[in-house]
Design goal:
The protein is an alpha/beta fold. Helix content is 27%, strand content 27%. The chain has four helices and seven strands; from the N terminus they run H-E-E-H-E-E-E-E-H-E-H.
């Protein structure tokens, strides 16, 4: 599978394995087409999870990871890409409906915008919450005190 797609995508695709888990690093410009190929041609019919990792000192600060599962093959694969802070990424909701809430969680926790998402808004935190708590440069104590004071009118226990 990897060789077939490396011929097609060249340097935009890199295959890795770590502790028996397979990863495909894909250039963000190839994502929508590549994710559709994974579903349609390789039978990865279930998007298990979408998450991100923040590396504030890198130029491309975010890794976005799709964990996919194929019921017919009984196999998992991870597709990963990198983006800069402020860049958006195409939504996968039209490919896997399960991506809906998963993308909303990544948006809520990291501030990553998924272009074309049907309802991209916070899913875990209140609408008035400032910032994105899973970024490594986020000051949770400051935010918690501010939100509690404004919305509850009391001093935070932090």
């Amino acid at each position: 599978m990897v060789e077939k797609y490396k011929r097609q995508y060249g340097s935009g695709l890199e295959a890795l394995s770590y502790l028996g888990q397979n990863y495909l690093n894909v250039d963000r410009t190839l994502l929508p087409d590549f994710l559709r190929l994974m579903r349609n041609e390789e039978e990865f019919d279930y998007c298990v999870d979408i998450t991100a990792v923040h590396y504030p000192k890198r130029e491309k600060q975010f890794d976005i990871v799709w964990i996919l599962y194929s019921f017919p093959r009984n196999e998992r694969i991870r597709v990963k890409t990198q983006i800069k802070d402020g860049e958006s990424i195409p939504s996968a909701v039209s490919i896997w409906p399960t991506a809906d809430w998963l993308e909303r969680e990544v948006y809520d926790m990291f501030g990553i915008v998924f272009e074309g998402h049907p309802n991209l808004k916070r899913i875990l935190l209140p609408d008035g919450w400032q910032g994105y708590p899973l970024r490594k440069d986020y000051d949770i104590l400051k935010q918690d005190k501010q939100w509690v004071q404004i919305n509850l009118g009391i001093e935070s226990g932090q």
